[in-house]
């Protein structure tokens, strides 16, 4: 009904605003004022269309539904992409593996190097592109330990008596590490996240308790959002079922936070990553649901586990050099169960515009 009325209103305004006229290229007499309003109306229509597109919910699509690459790990808890065909994968109390892969053409991976537990006992790890090495939070030695490209293991920095948890490295080569007095969810002023340079100098310390309020008790995973240099942390507060996504600015202040406020719903984020456009992606360990947030931790969409055909529960994600999403999964408990890897793409409004 509104569409049929709109042309009549437009023609009425056109007749009412006849003033100084010009001949257009088609020989029709039009008003300058009418021409301006006509252009303005078209701009309004385009802006409405853009606004409608921007409200489309982001989603994740597997590149090949049938392609599941099984690993020797019970779960792929951390992934670090090195280049088009190389990545590191690992599982705490399991192994840290360097593998070759071609997920587009093949459903197999080749194991290049394996560091087994308890020789390497890590909580989390990241890849240092500048120095071509792995940095992992060493639970056994309460330190950050490095593995070089020649597979030599060396101490990077000790934190005794504290223990390291999450670790990441920014594009400008600052290292962020979560520190706890013990691996638990207990409240303690000893818990923090630090930012340090590669020589081990601490630049910023983010305390877990600020102004008498507990911000987090267990920093589990972290990453720096490259679009604004904010630190994104998947953390827990007093319980593993009380997870939250925290956004810290460059000065270390909390600027936003996401918690799942649905009634009687436990939220336990197993990982956190950021898309090339700055969106935050995490997954709930128990349900397998994937949460997509904007760069300020505002909820954009929740993909239910059964709607995305991911094998098992997703427990890690990383971006390859082609901005495709590598998903690591945790299998259902069984004697023969293994974690797997799948390849996907992340689609947001501008990418999904037809």
UniProtKB/TrEMBL annotation:
Compositional bias per record (Basic residues), positions renumbered to this chain: 7-17
Record field: compositional bias (Basic and acidic residues): 20-52
Cross-referenced InterPro entries: 6-blade_b-propeller_TolB-like
Region called Disordered, residue ranges: 1-52
Protein name per the record: Uncharacterized protein
């Amino acid at each position: 009904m509104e569409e049929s009325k709109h042309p009549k209103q437009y023609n009425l305004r056109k007749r009412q605003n006849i003033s100084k006229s010009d001949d257009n290229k088609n020989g029709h007499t039009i008003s300058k004022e009418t021409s301006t309003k006509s252009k303005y109306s078209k701009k309004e229509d385009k802006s409405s269309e853009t606004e409608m597109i921007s409200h489309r919910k982001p989603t994740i699509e597997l590149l090949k539904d049938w392609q599941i690459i099984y690993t020797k790990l019970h779960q792929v808890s951390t992934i670090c992409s090195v280049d088009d065909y190389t990545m590191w994968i690992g599982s705490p109390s399991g192994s840290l593996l360097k593998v070759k892969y071609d997920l587009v053409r093949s459903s197999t991976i080749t194991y290049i190097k394996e560091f087994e537990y308890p020789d390497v006992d890590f909580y989390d790890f990241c890849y240092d592109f500048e120095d071509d090495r792995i940095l992992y939070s060493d639970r056994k030695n309460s330190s950050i330990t490095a593995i070089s490209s020649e597979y030599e293991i060396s101490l990077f920095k000790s934190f005794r008596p504290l223990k390291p948890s999450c670790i990441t490295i920014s594009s400008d080569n600052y290292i962020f590490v979560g520190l706890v007095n013990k691996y638990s969810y207990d409240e303690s002023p000893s818990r923090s996240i630090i930012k340090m340079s590669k020589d081990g100098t601490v630049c910023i310390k983010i305390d877990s308790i600020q102004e008498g309020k507990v911000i987090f008790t267990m920093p589990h995973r972290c990453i720096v959002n490259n679009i604004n240099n904010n630190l994104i942390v998947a953390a827990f507060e007093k319980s593993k079922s009380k997870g939250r996504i925290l956004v810290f600015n460059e000065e270390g202040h909390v600027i936003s936070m996401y918690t799942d406020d649905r009634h009687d719903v436990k939220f336990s984020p197993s990982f956190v990553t950021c898309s090339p456009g700055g969106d935050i992606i995490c997954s709930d360990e128990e349900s397998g649901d994937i949460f997509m947030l904007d760069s300020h931790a505002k909820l954009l969409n929740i993909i239910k586990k059964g709607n995305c055909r991911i094998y098992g529960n997703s427990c890690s994600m990383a971006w390859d050099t082609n901005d495709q999403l590598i998903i690591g999964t945790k299998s259902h408990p069984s004697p023969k169960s293994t974690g797997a890897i799948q390849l996907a793409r992340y689609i947001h409004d501008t990418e999904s515009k037809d």
